[in-house]
Structure formats: structure tokens, C-alpha cells
Write a structure and sequence with these properties.
about 90 residues, mainly alpha, Serine Threonine Protein Phosphatase 5, Tetratricopeptide repeat, about 0% strand
Length: about 90
Amino acid sequence: MDELKQYCEEHLSSAAYLNVGNVISTYQLADLHNAQHLKSRCLALLTINFGHILYTKVWEQFCELAQSKDIVEVTRAAVVKVPAPVVQK
């Protein structure tokens, strides 16, 4: 089972798969399965592109729907120090 997890983690963290459009959902998957290498790759991509991702609907939904608000804060703190986005309800 560990070999399968490692294979999946390597595939999902590859440049052929991981991109700005799926980095948040991939980060959530990595967090759910404690895939540290994949989380690190996601955070690296988030860091480079955070200015573009911060004000997207995907980021807003991530902040709203995260099962644990800690994941949002940890992600934001790991990427850059920015204020929380204002969510209109």
C-alpha cells in the first residue's frame, strides 16, 4: 500500500499533472492522506502563483468549505503573510 501511495504522490506532484487550476484540490487531497511530498509541491506552486490564486472563486470556496479552518491558515501562512479574503455571504 505504501508503494501505491508513493506512486500516486509522485504522479500528482509531477509538472505534467499539477497546475494552478488543480493545486488547491490536490493540496486538500495531500492533506487528507498525509502526503507530505505532495503538500510541499503544492505549497511551492501556491507560493509562486498566490497573487493569482488568492482572489479566485476556487480559493474562496477552499476557505469556506475547508473542514478545518487550520488548513486555510496553515496554507496562507506557509505561502505568504496576507490578510484573509473577505467573503460576501
